[in-house]
Amino acid sequence: MSSLLARSPKLSSVVAGEIRASIIADGLQPGDNLPIEKEMIESFGVSRATIREALKELEVQGLIRMKTGPTGGPIVAGSGSQEALQAIQNFCYFEKVTIDDVYELRTLLEVRLVRSVVGHIDEESFARLQELADLSAVPARNEDARRRQREAEFEFHTAIAGCSPNRLLTMMIEVLAAILVHATARESSRHRMHSEWSCENARYHSDILDALRREDEEAAAALMEEHMAQAHGHLQLMYGQVSLEDIALGTNRGA
User: Fold this and answer.
1) Are residues 47 and 63 in the same domain?
2) What is the dihedral of CA 255, 135, 161, 124, to 10 degrees?
3) Which of 245, 235, 231, 249 is nearest to 92 (CA)?
């Protein structure tokens, strides 16, 4: 019966949660110092070993880092898409997540994204987006150039995400794009259909940009949904139902 009961969290994890809460409540920013070890021991009423274990837990999570030297100690490291990427990437590999799974989520987020950025893109950002779209419009001469095209096609989406007022949405788009780049860019750049796919991506990206410049939310959303279906179809052709883990290990059936 005891196995059915929820286990109590470790004391060090409880302390880690309290340290995290205090960082947020005190408005600490990356680079700010946390209290020294002795002060934490007195504040939380726990042992040195518990404090060190709690700090290690927060360090592994990417929230803090340990500064060395005479003035060393725990400082706020912040948290961003890189930490989220690693955690979600690990989850995708262990849980046998497929391209279909990724695109079911990606389509929902990308359509919501273009709706959220209407009226929020400045001319500098439009210029960068156009530059990224143009990279895929011209046939690449070698595999390195093709790979750069694939990376630019994903960067187009993260550049749009950078204009969104919703920072959580921005981070999720960045994480999904990074997972797809890591998993598929190399094989896609070698595929016999690469040039045709890149031209299609360039057309969609240009059309989406035109809709965003007109601040036509419905047109931008419809184009993005079509674009996601097209991109999904390309990767289905390459990989079928193979998991991201198998793709990363080079055991895919496609290409």
Assistant:
1) yes
2) 180
3) 245
- Other residues' Cβ atoms within 10 Å of the Cβ of residue 85: 18
Strands, E assignment, the chain:
64-67, 73-76
CA dist., res. 185 & res. 181, Å (int): 5
Separation between Cα atoms, residue 102 and residue 235, nearest integer Å: 11
What is the pTM (predicted TM-score) of this model?
0.73
Say which residues have a Cβ less than 8 Å from residue 177's Cβ, sequence separation at least 6. 154, 155, 157, 158
The DSSP result for 25-86, as a single string, is: HTT--TTPBPPPHHHHHHHHT--HHHHHHHHHHHHHTTSEEEEPSTT-EEEE----HHHHHH
Residue 54, token pair as written in the block = 């709690």
DSSP one-letter code for 4: G
Verify that 162 and 69 share a domain, yes or no: no
Whether residues 146 and 105 share a domain: the answer is yes
Whether residue 212 is found in the same domain as residue 143:
yes
Encode the chain (255 residues) as per-residue pLDDT tens digits. Answer: 444 445 667 899 999 989 988 888 888 888 899 998 999 999 999 999 999 999 998 887 778 888 887 778 899 886 665 667 777 878 887 888 888 999 999 999 999 999 999 999 999 999 999 999 998 888 888 888 888 888 899 999 999 999 999 999 998 999 899 888 887 777 776 777 778 888 899 999 999 999 999 999 999 999 999 999 999 998 888 877 777 777 766 655 444
Among residues 24, 53, 76, the one where a domain terminates is 76
* CB contact set of 91 (below 8 Å; sequence gap of 6+): 97
